[in-house]
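Milestone M4 deliverable, item 7.
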Amino acid sequence: MIFFLNQQQTPPPPPPAAPLAHGGDGAKPGAQGPAARAEGPKTPSDAITPATGTFTKQQKKYLEDRVPEGMDPAAVLQTGQETCDRLRYLVKADRDTAVGAVATEEIPDAAAAVTGLCPQHQDLVDEAAYAYPDGTHTGKALRPGDYRSVSPTQNCSWEITGAGGKQVSADTSTTGKSRTITIPKSARTFTSTGCYAWLPEGDRG
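Output delivered:
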């Protein structure tokens, strides 16, 4: 098992032949792996120690309330570090895809890994909070503005409805290329299928 100790070792980068795969069916993958906050009893923070070496203060803070009893804390740490590695790889390849992967939870537990292990990627998490993954979004979750699709499939469709379910706009793109839409203040529901994620254009405030 490989994990960072206070010697600041650097793991190998994620293989470039393992891109994200998404089906655009509107479903969010659930958080998986030991990095997610699993249910059940956790190892007390003062008992979280590696088999060899020591954890840094930052690593130990990340592991608090995250290691199920009986699990090797190094495995939990490694999963978090792999999340950071994947984000770093995606940012270099395409930043929008990295933000979309966080927004759709295709990279599970990304916010916790970034906060605890790779805060240099906090901007990705912050932007993802304003994005819309495939699915149906209603009420206060809707924010007026312009949005661009990220990694859409060749069957990317969306619909915006207003009060009483009246359709405001709807369309389907079969090009697989990014499209830009506007969510108006009158919107009550926004539904997206096969578009992966929509990121805000310009000012998000």
